Amino acid sequence: MSCVSFDVQKIREDFPILKRKVNGHSLVYLDNAATSQKPQAVIDCMVDYYSNYNANIHRGVHTLSQEATDAYEVARKKIQNHFGITHPEEVIFTSGTTHAINLVANGFSSFLKKGDEVLVSAMEHHSNIVPWQMLCERTGATLKVIPMNETGELVMEDFEKLLSESTKLVFVNHVSNALGTINPIEEIIIKAHKVGAAVLIDGAQSCAHIKPNLNALDVDFYVTSAHKMCGPTGVGMLYGKKEWLEKLPPYQGGGEMIKEVTFEKTTYAGLPHKFEAGTPNIAGGIAFGAAIDYLNEIGFKEITAYEDGLLSYATLELLKIEGLKIYGTSKNKTSVISFNLDGIHPYDVGTIVDKLGIAVRTGHHCAQPIMDYYKIPGTVRASFSFYNTKEEVDKLVEAVKRAKMMLS
Ligand SMILES: *Cc1c(COP(=O)(O)O)cnc(C)c1O
């Protein structure tokens, strides 16, 4: 961590929650893969909306409604620019990743038939498995799994063997929330397109660490949640190529998504409104834009370099503990460390470190198939953000040592 331009103490000042005490200790927040903390700029943005221009959007001619609509559409533009998206109407606001995936899965019901195949990776989050299972049940298509290996990487030779003219859709996460693996999505997209399959990338875990250029990636769909990238809960993005979004049927019916309604027939509104039925999370959408501004002010290069430093240091220090095993050892990974102590249940480790003010995740991390692969009930997962410090890593290591002493 030689990056002198990166002043982590100054950055920590932006996050009011980091001043909290938990169980008498300063909070050490290492559950960033579940949700990130929020900087004051994002909190202020939501307070400002509710205090000064709260109104429903796209509906009123009055001043407040226009101000709210403008701010919401400015946020859409910020998302568009950040992700290198060609048209603003290719950005659909959703309630999050799960909602976005379900929207696409539901839409594909009308395109799939028996004999078609859908590929998902072995390291998917449950929200990227269940909707496809439901889709396959509805359509008679077959769900196939791209296997992974012991280091937590996808077996690309097997992926190529699975691809055929029957493959209609490929779904892979950009980064695994349970292992931290960064998947080779460029290669996956190119190869899937060669057989004519569409690709959806789940970016819920990547977007706090990586700034993807979706136009350059030529991906068909990309989804993410604001809350994992310093934004509020309850809002996220579906990116879809215009051609796809125009073909997909609407997901929910309601206000805002229609052009004309009679009891005989309704004509749908154009993009993006066709997929944005009802009053959206207005404050959340605007604050999603503020979160993107905040992250870009720090800079993704800086974030990645700093987090890589933390990851290497934490990996090195944790591995000094005898009987500690790390799951997910891909060379290409973000700052997630999933581990277990030999013979000790992850839940017990999590409970002891919490007593010391350290928040880690324990369990299957909504990725049970990965746990089944390693034949373990779950792991302890420490996931780091750019506001974590080397001193916090030291505290974690000490706490894990203590847990080991108490439990073995
Ligand atoms: C968190 C996460 C999800 C689910 O996101 P929600 O915000 O809960 O909808 C899906 N996939 C991955 C990889 C995740 O990390």
UniProtKB/TrEMBL annotation:
Any one GO MF annotation of this record: cysteine desulfurase activity
Catalyzed reactions: (sulfur carrier)-H + L-cysteine = (sulfur carrier)-SH + L-alanine
Q: Which Pfam families match?
A: Aminotran_5
Query: Which keywords appear in this protein's UniProt record, sorted alphabetically?
Result: Pyridoxal phosphate, Transferase
Query: CDD domains attached here?
Result: SufS_like
Span of domain Aminotransferase class V: 28-396
Annotated GO biological processes are:
cysteine metabolic process
Q: What does this protein do?
A: Catalyzes the removal of elemental sulfur and selenium atoms from L-cysteine, L-cystine, L-selenocysteine, and L-selenocystine to produce L-alanine.
**PANTHER family, sorted:** CYSTEINE DESULFURASE, CYSTEINE DESULFURASE 1, CHLOROPLASTIC
Which protein, by its recorded name, is this? Probable cysteine desulfurase
Organism of origin is Halomarinibacterium sedimenti
